[in-house]
Amino acid sequence: MMGAGGVGGYFGGRLAAGGCDVTFVARGRHLDAIRDNGLRIDSCDIGDAIIDPANATADPKDVGVVDYVIVAVKLWDTEDVGRAILPMVGPDTTVLSLQNGVECDETLARVVGAEHLIGGVAFIASSISEPGVIKHIGTMQRVVVGERAGGSSPRVEALHNAMLQAGITAEVSRDIERTIWEKFIFLVGLSATTTLLRTTLGPVREDSDSREFLLNVMRETVAVGRAKGIDLADDYAQNRLVFVDGLPVDMTSSMHHDLEAGNRLEVAWLSGAVARFGRELGVATPVNQTVFTALKSHAAPRL
């Protein structure tokens, strides 16, 4: 697992608890805690888990060639991480990105080779609650994988089966690019509203103005996706709003967590990307442009 935060720590932890040989590439106090006390998952869904001892390192060179590299790092690190994982990539290694955004696979493909990549997306509300501990909120913990060109393959099925055996809700998509965009639409809406308004999902959807704001963020993202040739229904944003109504009131986004913690934000690759795509395609994206403009000062690297 290249990254052991809310996504990498949770899904890597479940795979390790399920019997897979998993090495976590982490850093700082989180790495120290995993080495000293193992990795703990706190979850009200399928139960807590403790992986102790847990294999963890700061340097991918320590790991050697592996069957799968799962990338779960912040978007600005994608290209650097692609280069960092090269010592783990052999002729038969499969690389899977479970990052946010819709541009990660193209970035990784330029570095490690497109033949190594499969597509995937993770649906979960989780974060590092303290070093060595992953907090999972709600019941959603789902991964969808598929070949980037469409359909499945033996390497996709092997990973899918390993996830199922570990208790992860896992699926194979016949059109993983569309699945990635479907998640992106929801994520852009969730991150934009919870971060800009500094609140959780419950208050966003209960107030008529912020609810309309959320819908418009998603509508613009759907319009951009359709202009890029993604097979999305014209009313997909409205359908996502129905989905939002069934989520926990305390759910929020990793970008909101990052803002509250004073960390760098991924907004340039979320609402910022929607606005950038819109300019390139001639699609109006005023709401996402506003979100990006309001938050971009937090997107610069912290010194």
- The radius of gyration over CA amounts to 18 Å
Average pLDDT rating: 95
Spans of at least 5 consecutive residues with low confidence? none
CATH homology group of the largest domain: NAD(P)-binding Rossmann-like Domain
Cα end-to-end separation: 26 Å
Biggest beta-sheet profile: 7 strands, mixed
The CATH topology label of the largest domain is Rossmann fold
Broad shape: globular
How large is the share of residues in beta strands? 15-25%
Tell me the structural class.
Answer: alpha/beta
Percentage of residues assigned to helices: 40-55%
Order of helices and strands: HEHEEEEHEHEEHEHHHHHHH
Would you state the CATH class of the largest domain? Alpha Beta
Number of domains: 2
Number of strands: 9
CATH architecture of the largest domain: 3-Layer(aba) Sandwich
Brief summary:
The protein has helices at residues 6-17, 28-37, 78-84, 104-112, 154-165, 176-197, 201-206, 208-227, 236-244, 254-261, 271-281, 286-295; strands at 23-25, 39-43, 49-51, 55-57, 68-71, 94-97, 117-130, 133-146, 169-172.
If you had to describe this structure to a student in words, what would you say it looks like?
With 303 residues, the protein is an alpha/beta fold. It has two domains: 6-174, NAD(P)-binding Rossmann-like Domain (Rossmann fold); 178-298, Orthogonal Bundle (N-(1-d-carboxylethyl)-l-norvaline Dehydrogenase, domain 2), CATH 1.10.1040. It contains twelve helices and nine strands. The chain has helices at residues 6-17, 28-37, 78-84, 104-112, 154-165, 176-197, 201-206, 208-227, 236-244, 254-261, 271-281, 286-295; strands at residues 23-25, 39-43, 49-51, 55-57, 68-71, 94-97, 117-130, 133-146, 169-172. Strands 2, 3, 5, 6, 7, 8 and 9 form a seven-stranded mixed β-sheet that branches. Strands 1-4 form a two-stranded parallel sheet. Helix 6 packs antiparallel against helix 8 (208-227), helix 6 crosses helix 12 and helix 8 packs across helix 11 (271-281). The chain is globular. The two termini are 26 Å apart.
